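Batch job 17 of 40 flagged for manual review because the log was empty.
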Amino acid sequence: MFQELIVQHGPLLGLFISSLTGSTIFIPLSVEALFPILIRSDLDPYLIVIIASMGALMGTWINYLLGYFGSGIIERKLDSNRIDRAKRIMNKYGWPGLFIIIFLPLPLPIPVDPITIFPGIARMNFIEFSIVVFFAKLARYSFFVGIFNSLLGLLHL
């Protein structure tokens, strides 16, 4: 029973775990690199997007909670000017700014997900944070899955 479950849902479980861990400040990795492999294994593209988005959301919850409950420690470890600047940016741009940063389907010079620690430090509403992150990840991953699915189809792979 358990083995059957793992064999049947192993790739999705792996995607979920990769997405969750890759969205934390501890192990930044790009889950998008797994999408072509999962698409080629005939997994439903919609399921790939939803599972990856849910895993990423839970990973960013860890960052948010670290920022929320660990802000004192973080403020002692990092330059206070950088923390104050991040708080001002979060307060100025709020959820639209967070959505854009997370959604941008561009390779950025810095990992994006660790930035989600700052909404916790700035005390952004947790429900609002969760909704924004989920839909930004959903849009981002939909973009990448669509691109990879189209390219693999064009290349007959």
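Reviewer: the log was empty due to a logging misconfiguration, but the result itself is present. The chain has one domain: 42-154. Unflagging and moving on to job 18.
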